[in-house]
Amino acid sequence: xxxLWKSLLVSPAILGAILLVDxxxxxxxxxxxxxxxxxxxxxxxxxxVENNNTQSQVTSVSxxxxxxxxxxxxxxxxxxxxxxxxxxxxxxxxxxxxxxxxRYEFAAGLNACLDRVNEIIATATSELVTxxxxxxxxxxxxxxxxxxxxxxxxxxxxxxxxxxLEANQFSTTTKLTGQVVMAITDVLGGDNVNGVDAKDNNxxxxxxxxxxxxxxxxxxxxxxxxxxxxxxxxxxxxxSEGSLFFAGEDGTTDAFLDALWYRFSxxxxxxxxxxxxxxxxxxxxxxxxxxDGDGAFGALSTFGTRNxxxxxxxxxxxxxxxxxxxxxxxSLAYLGSSPNDPSADNGIFNxxxxxxxxxxxxxxxxxxxxLTYINAYNQELxxxxxxxxxxxxLESQLTPPPDVPGEPEPVTVPxxxxxxGLQASYKLSDNFVLGGWVGYTNARNLSTEGGTIDRGxxxxxxxxxxLGFPDLGSxxxxxxxxxxxxxxxxxxxxxxIDEDEDTSYHFEAFYQYQVSENIxxxxxxxxLTAPDHNSDNDDxxxxxxxxxxxx
Length: 551
Known about the structure:
Layout: H1 2-7, H2 12-18, H3 74-84, H4 103-122, H5 131-143, H6 145-168, E1 174-189, E2 204-215, E3 222-230, E4 256-265, E5 270-280, H7 281-284, E6 292-293, E7 297-298, H8 302-305, E8 314-323, E9 328-336, H9 347-350, E10 353-361, E11 367-377, H10 390-398, E12 415-429, E13 432-445, E14 457-470, E15 478-492, E16 505-514, E17 519-529, E18 540-550
Antiparallel strand pairs: 1-2, 1-18, 2-3, 3-4, 4-5, 5-8, 6-7, 8-9, 9-10, 10-11, 11-12, 12-13, 13-14, 14-15, 15-16, 16-17, 17-18
């Protein structure tokens, strides 16, 4: 008898009610309808439908607003709801009993109610099921045997596919992603920049490849691991202006651990990130720039990617973001550049570091403003004139030339700096975003290097205005224009470092064309007037063609 019970599909009361249901079949069949609300499946109380628009189980037929006691099927619906409890209406509380349905949908409804019938039997309430019910169940089973077999076959196939995916997935906690940036670069103009013939640079082709592991243990945390190889090099134009963000340092294809961090929520409003390697400002706060795509997307240049004061944040450390509301957040972070080096003047606290505090204000989806302060030791801006990066500049000026007997030791003068930034981005429309920033850095040397240089301070300024055109030409594409002044020494009380007398302007334009969901191609050009803030230098034009593959 138990086998008979388990082979049955639905009761006669269910038959009368399901004939009125317009439900989306479990087998994937749909009905064309002019109404926007998706139909509600007939489900048992223990089943759930993956649809945010669905309502809870109906417990009384009076909950269905379009069902009246005078309707011919009222008693059948009442029996189905109150006796068997395996029917629900549409999200708006209607039943729509006059709508048509397919045989597959009818079979799906029968199958959905089977669990409820079995539940009644299992809980020793079999008196609710009569002999007439059993006879009707048998007739329905025979009439819809083909449709039910099809449904079961599809379910079996889905279960087999699910089992195969579970058996062959990379990890139950980790998602593997990757990215390849290929770039063709060349210097198109510039005969003399600080004694360097910029046009002597040859056309180059290089690539940056990244493999990323995104791991989550709780569903709300992230362990991020990135392995990278990068043989792209910046062209030598005699200044750090115009450098490409996606370029590497040594030009090799050696793979190494590039980034490693763990992010989790301490409370509903507090997020913490612990960074073990290669942390940057965009890991700990919002850089408030539409073009900050970490070299793979958006701006081509280092300067155009984000306010240069952010480049003083580099290494390992800790970041905390406190969200006071949806419109206001405070980010605090500390990153050290040589945390694993136990030698003198190194380590997490005694070596180069950057400490950041930023208040990010977003009163609407269209406007974002960031107020930033960074205190740094032995960190440079990584963009702008040679003098705006005083540690490197003094090292090049004070270190003995290679032809001096012996092995000259590099001369490193320690610097401390305080930087202040204002960043803003305003979305004027869905296809036009106006943005920009201004940055100020006050840097002072902490040593005279045995009386070689005087103690003093530098005032360094930079600014930019950005114009973004999202979805220009096609969905996902982005056009951008950047106009600004890379970091410039406007005042100096250090005798060995003169202020930059002239002003160099940075003009950059690019068009990121989204070929497909995984491929984008970005041609762009960078034009530097009076490079290195020196009008004696020829203008430099750098061209680049970047292709990004994501998987």
